[in-house]
Amino acid sequence: MTQKPVTQAAKTKGNDFVKAMLDLLILALLVGGAGFGGYFLGIHERLAPVQNVPPGTANAIPPPIAPTLPAKVEENAPAPKPNRDADKTAADEQQPVKSGAKSPLKYWISSSGADYTGYSITVKINDTPVDNFFGPGKNVDITRFVKKGDNEVNFECKALGEQYNKHPGDAASELVVQLVAGPHVQDDFKAAAVVLTYKRNASESEDINETKHFAAK
Q1: How do the pLDDT tens digits run along the chain, 217 residues long?
Q2: 185: DSSP letter
Q3: Cβ-count burial 116-139 (b if 16+ within 10 Å, e if not)
Q4: Which of 24, 49, 181, 197 is the most buried (most CB within 10 A)?
Q5: With left for phi above 0 and alpha for psi between -120 and 50, is residue 9 left, alpha or beta?
Q6: Coil, strand or helix: which one is 93?
Q7: Which of 208, 111, 103, 195 is nearest to 146 (CA)?
Q8: How many angstroms separate the Cα of 172 from the Cα of each of 55, 114, 184, 202?
């Protein structure tokens, strides 16, 4: 039996088929390699150790917050005692100050009456000179000189002569020196606040030295 010879067209068709199969195999290898590479990179990133980065780093995952566990309570443990001192202190701070509380008592010497009566009156408290008084409108705080119990007040009056007397012979023109007690030094005090009073008038012309006493609480 005689074998038919292979034609040139048949050879060309076979070569094209082999090339197509090779191209398909190469494409399959490329797709498979790409898939395996992606899978490998994903596993590697998942299993990579976590790195600490400074706060504020972009795309950084904040660290997980550890849950806070309640304190362990021992059985038969005594109950904590209330802090009564702290409660008392807080109550005292919230309590308003009473407006009726008395302020420390003040003592002062106040002069009033007529001007230029011809006298100068020097006042001493417990042998300590306080001030000189020539006319009205003068207030001097003497609280620091006053002691608890009996106190001595000395009035030393000096006649200044006719040149300092605008009311000669007028007994109604008086220089009045008063010791006053109250919550604070002031001009407009009530008569009940006056502890003692001393006067000299323009009709007199003699030097006089007198002493009085008062009790301080």
Answers
A1: 555 555 565 566 667 777 778 888 888 787 777 766 666 655 555 544 556 656 666 666 666 555 554 455 455 555 556 555 545 444 444 554 444 445 589 999 999 999 999 999 999 999 999 999 999 999 999 999 999 999 999 999 999 999 999 999 999 999 999 999 999 999 999 999 999 999 999 999 999 999 999 999 8
A2: -
A3: bbbbbbbbbbeeeebeebbbbebe
A4: 181
A5: alpha
A6: helix
A7: 195
A8: 93, 9, 30, 8
